[in-house]
Amino acid sequence: MGVKIEKAAPSGFCSGVGRALEIVTRVARERGGVEMLGAVVHNARVMAELEALGCRVVTSPADIRGGAVVTSAHGVSPELEDELKRRGIEVISTTCPFVRRAQTAARELARKGFLVVVYGEAAHPEVKGILGWAGGPGIATLDTGFLASLQPLPRRIGVVSQTTQVPAQFQRFIKKLVSAAFTQNSDFRLLDTICHDIRERQAQAARLATRVDLMLIVGGRESANTRHLARLVARITPTHRVASAGEISQSWLAGKQRIGVVGGASTPESALEEVLSRLKELTSDHGQSG
To answer: Does domain 98-190 sit in CATH 3.40.1010.20?
Structure first.
């Protein structure tokens, strides 16, 4: 019996990434290039294509030389936007609508006197931006250990999530947080800010993982959503994460009869097709791939 290779749906860019790339591509073509404050999306292949259009990545506001800059789909803080505008720089935002929703939620919670807790990776640009929108004391974390440093515990705690986190893990975090911090007269607010597209992609990947004996996750090295996908399905079946087809090892495929492939939200369809083609080549000695 031949090796069965199956690609999870949905695949290709999520709506937020697709929107961001449409904006920056249009601007680059209209203006003959544009500066980008950091990577618009976390995928080296996509960024190389943008650079070919005349886009240039700058790592800090001080490095901006032109009169306009594109900000990332991950969003930035309002303080950074204000700084750029004070310098007379046009800000072309590609912030994902789901990220904007999380930013707005954090701002409203802070305005109402809540300590804002962002469930997410503290060093990630999206999380930094969300905390910036809170405009005051806030915490980014993936565990409840931070509570030990808060004495007395704040009466009002509001929680949002990094948009690419795994829902089940967010739920476990919330249960622990409520158990540890919910006391008499507590006011606890929770807003589910996980992206709908990401949620569906994770759910379909997890279902596919139950049907196969190997999963390949295709995406950029810096991509948080790809990293979360890999961790999710690795709990179900053996999993490898690759940025390109060239990284696939023949040894991974030994004895495997069903192989699943899923791409991150910033992984182009062309990269997935190359991975599928490479898998068919590597498994051809074992029979035809389905």
So the answer is: yes
